[in-house]
Each structure stands twice: as structure tokens, then as C-alpha cells.
Design a protein that fits this description.
about 60% helix; globular; transmembrane helix; membrane; transmembrane; DUF7847; DUF7847 domain-containing protein
């Protein structure tokens, strides 16, 4: 008998309230893998294998009433949660969390130690040598002053020598770290797909981007140093005008605080420019605009991760360098100002600074590169492009060098729909 809704109660495979002229909700057809259990398929009404079963009723409990309310897993993915993301390389191919980014940076160093740590050690040693010489000289002078005359001040010559060594070290570090960042970013781009790259191959691919990388450094320094010069000029102007101490303190505090906020804002907005310059082969202005665009919508998260990375890198450098600096202090103390003691102190300081920097440099470069990949996955669904490439690479059994081209939006401007299409001549086209 009809219930007035166009359905026939008790019809095989049709739940109550379902119209008789509509197909069954489970696709009940002979041999269908989605056939619903019940009279239509001849299967008993029991949960699938692997799902929790209701235990027999206890004393005083009606038969068929389970002691819990949800015998079946709830949610769109069942009991196991969402399926794990593909991970052919150092990161999962999905938007990244903080743990994924830090873990990916560590995996980059572990997966390709010869290229990553070897290059970082060379760069760190170049920057550490002049700094170590200046610090060893200053350390020897300070300890000699303490032992001989506690009121003696370091000579003007020693101060100039120490400051000159520090400036030379900073200049070498800027040049070397700029080159290292470009090379490590190129290695990172391949490592995300699970591939490796030698230092020579990475340099060959990065060499053409060196002018752009130095252009980014110059623009960033100018953007930070010009406001800093204005703050210094403000202090000089207040001093020349004979302003009171209270006025100088208030004005100086406001100016310094404004500069710090400005520096954090600009450096965060432009932090992804080197990755865009290397992986997308953009120019200076285009890379800056690209970084500004990618950081939009994720500024505070990007800032927090960058600050945390700087803190971690600083602590690693200090912990690794401390035993060597302590040993250099003892040598300078026991050596009594001899030339041999100064040389050994400088060597120990250089070794300690090198060890700390060879971990800190790739950590910072990797975090910046992974933040770039994360922002593209979040704002452009770039993870779908990466997953498509990973599937094709798994089918072929190797990571082709043309995987580097996938980072360029000109190759895949429309994401996965255009990616790998045969008419594009793409290296990942399906045959």
C-alpha cells in the first residue's frame, strides 16, 4: 500500500520515504560495489569489517541496545581521520604547520648533507675568520688589562682593529650568505619532490640569479637604513637644539619603537623575495612584489615563524660556539699576550663560530623557502600541482630535473588543470 509519498514500504533496497521512481540512494544494481546491505543484496544487517561491534547485552539490558551511542565512526573520513598527505620529499604536499616547516628544514640538511652543510661550512668559515681575529685580539687585550691594571682602557688602535674586523666579517657574511641562500633554495626546490642535487649543479642553476639576489639585498638594506638614518638624525637634532633629557628620552623611545615596528613589517613582507627570484626566475622588482603578495593574508604567522627561527638559530650558534670561546679565553689568559696564544685563540673562536653558523645558515634559508612554498599552497592551491607531479614521478620512478620548472607560474599558470596537459609538451604529460 502506498503511504502517499510515492513510495512502497518494504520495497527491496528502498528506504522508507524514498520515491519509487528515483534510483536507490546507494546505487543498488547487480554487482555494484556500493550496493547497500539489506534484503536487496542478501547481505545481513551488520557493520562492515573493521568497525566496532556491539557487545552482547549485559544483565538487565534489553537485547540490541549497545552500551554506547555511536557504534560506527563519525565524520567524513571515518575513524582514521583524513588520509595522510603525499610526502615524496622533505615535507608533506599540503599547507604546512610550524612543525612541518622546522622538520622540513632539518630533513633538508639530513637528506643532502654534503651539499647543504658542506657549502654552509665554507661560507661560515669565510665570515668567521676576520671576526675571530678581531675577537681574539680584543680578548687578549681585555684579559691583559685585567691582570695588569684594572683601570686600563683598550687603546684606540685596538678598538679600530676590532671594529674593522667586525665590519669586514659582516660584509663577507652578506655576500656569502646571499650566494648560499640562492644555492640552498634551489636544492630545497628539488628536495620537496624527493630529489637530490649536487653543489655544482645547484650553483650552475643559480648562477644566473646572482645579480637579482644582490639587487634584493641592496633594496632591503636601503629600505631599512634610510629610516634608521632619520632616527639618528632626530637624536642629533634634539641634542643640537638643547632639548631636555625628558624630551630626548620620550622622542627617542617613540622613534626607536616606530623603527623596530617598521623593520619587522618590511623584512617580513620581503622575506620571500629570494625564493621567488630563484625558483620563479623573477627580477628584483617582480620578486619584491611577489613576496609582498604572498605574505598578504598570512603576515602575523609569517612574522612569528621568522622570529622563532632567528631565536632558534641564535641559540644553536651560541651553544655550539660557547665551548670554543671558553677555551680561547683560557688560552689568552695563560698565554700572557704571546703571539701563539692569540693565533690559537683565533682558531678556536673561528671553529666555534663556523660550527654554529653552518647549522644556522641553512636553517634560516630552508625556513624561508618552506614558508614560500606554504604561502603558495595556501593562496594558490599549489599543493595540487605538487601532488600531480609527485604522482607522475612515482610512476616513472625518478625525479626529473624539469621538476624545477614547476615552481615557475608561467609553466603552470592555471594550476593542476593545465599541468601535464599533452598539448603543452610538459615533461609530466601522461601518454
Amino acid at each position: 500500500m502506498s503511504d502517499g509519498h510515492g513510495s512502497t514500504p518494504g520495497a527491496p533496497g528502498t528506504p522508507p520515504g524514498w520515491a519509487s521512481n528515483q534510483p536507490p540512494p546507494y546505487g543498488n544494481t547487480p554487482g555494484s560495489p556500493w550496493t547497500a546491505p539489506g534484503p536487496a543484496s542478501g547481505a545481513p544487517e551488520s557493520p562492515p569489517q573493521g568497525f566496532p561491534q556491539a557487545p552482547p547485552p549485559g544483565p538487565g539490558q534489553p537485547y540490541g541496545q549497545a552500551p554506547y551511542q555511536q557504534p560506527y565512526p563519525q565524520g567524513p573520513y571515518g575513524a582514521g581521520g583524513p588520509p595522510p598527505a603525499m610526502r615524496p620529499g622533505i615535507i608533506p604536499l599540503r599547507p604546512l604547520g610550524l612543525g612541518d616547516i622546522l622538520d622540513g628544514a632539518i630533513k633538508l640538511m639530513r637528506s643532502n648533507p654534503r651539499s647543504v652543510l658542506g657549502l654552509s661550512a665554507i661560507v661560515a668559515a669565510l665570515a668567521a675568520v676576520p671576526l675571530a681575529i678581531g675577537q681574539a685580539s680584543a680578548l687578549d687585550t681585555s684579559l691583559s688589562s685585567i691582570l695588569e691594571n684594572r683601570n686600563a682602557a683598550p687603546s684606540q688602535q685596538n678598538i679600530i682593529f676590532e671594529q674593522s674586523s667586525t665590519l669586514i666579517s659582516y660584509a663577507v657574511e652578506i655576500i656569502a650568505v646571499t650566494l648560499l641562500t640562492g644555492v640552498l633554495t634551489r636544492i630545497l626546490g628539488r628536495a620537496i619532490f624527493g630529489g637530490k642535487m649536487t653543489a655544482g649543479e645547484a650553483w650552475t642553476l643559480t648562477r644566473s640569479r646572482v645579480p637579482t639576489l644582490f639587487g634584493l639585498v641592496v633594496v632591503t638594506l636601503v629600505a631599512l637604513l634610510v629610516p634608521l638614518a632619520l632616527v639618528v638624525g632626530l637624536f642629533l637634532a634634539l641634542g643640537a637644539a638643547g632639548a631636555g633629557a625628558a624630551v630626548v628620552a620620550v622622542a627617542g623611545t617613540v622613534a626607536v619603537l616606530a623603527f623596530v615596528i617598521y623593520a619587522f613589517f618590511v623584512s617580513t613582507r620581503l622575506a620571500l623575495a629570494p625564493a621567488a627570484a630563484v625558483l620563479e626566475r623573477r627580477g628584483v622588482v617582480s620578486s619584491l612584489r611577489r613576496s609582498w603578495q604572498l605574505v598578504s593574508g598570512g603576515f602575523w604567522r609569517t612574522l612569528g615563524i621568522l622570529v622563532l627561527t632567528q631565536i632558534i638559530a641564535f641559540l644553536i650558534g651560541q651553544v655550539l660556539a660557547f665551548p670554543f670561546v671558553l677555551g680561547a679565553s683560557f688560552l689568552a689568559l695563560l698565554g700572557g699576550g704571546s703571539t701563539g696564544a692569540q693565533i690559537l685563540s683565533a682558531i678556536l673562536i673561528a671553529v666555534g663560530v663556523t660550527l654554529g653558523s653552518m647549522i644556522a645558515y641553512p636553517l634560516r634559508a630552508a625556513v624561508n623557502g618552506l614558508l614560500y612554498a606554504d604561502r603558495r599552497m595556501r593562496s594558490e592551491a599549489f599543493d595540487l600541482v605538487l601532488q600531480t607531479a609527485a604522482i607522475e614521478q612515482r610512476r616513472q620512478g625518478w625525479v626529473h630535473a624539469s621538476a624545477d620548472d614547476l615552481w615557475d607560474p608561467a609553466v603552470t599558470p592555471s594550476g593542476p588543470a593545465r599541468y601535464g596537459s599533452p598539448d603543452q609538451g610538459a615533461p609530466w604529460s601522461h601518454s
